[in-house]
Amino acid sequence: MQRREATQQQLNKLPFLRKEIKEVMLLMVHNLFFFGMMVKSLRTA
């Protein structure tokens, strides 16, 4: 019974984790894009 409750808690945590991963990935993509723009401007300068 206890084990079943534990797995239920993990399942409840999953959507939150997925949301966090999505936010982190968006942040990484944004940072990569910004970095790319900086490198581009440095090359042209």
Biggest sheet statistics? none
Strand content: under 5%
The residue-averaged pLDDT reads 88
Report the total helices.
Answer: 1
Oligomerization: single chain
Structural class of the helices, strands and pairings? Answer: mainly alpha
The total tally of domains equals: 1
Q: How many DSSP-defined strands?
A: 0
- Separation of termini? 66 Å
Query: Which residue ranges are poorly predicted, with pLDDT under 50 across at least 5 consecutive positions?
Result: none
Briefly say what this structure is.
By secondary structure, the chain is mainly α. It has one domain.
Structure description:
The chain is mainly alpha-helical. The chain has one domain (1-45). Helix content is 96%, strand content 0%. The protein has one helix at residues 2-44. It is rod-shaped. The mean pLDDT is 88.
Q: What topology does this entry show?
A:
Layout: H1 2-44
List keywords for this structure.
about 45 residues; mainly alpha; about 95% helix; rod-shaped
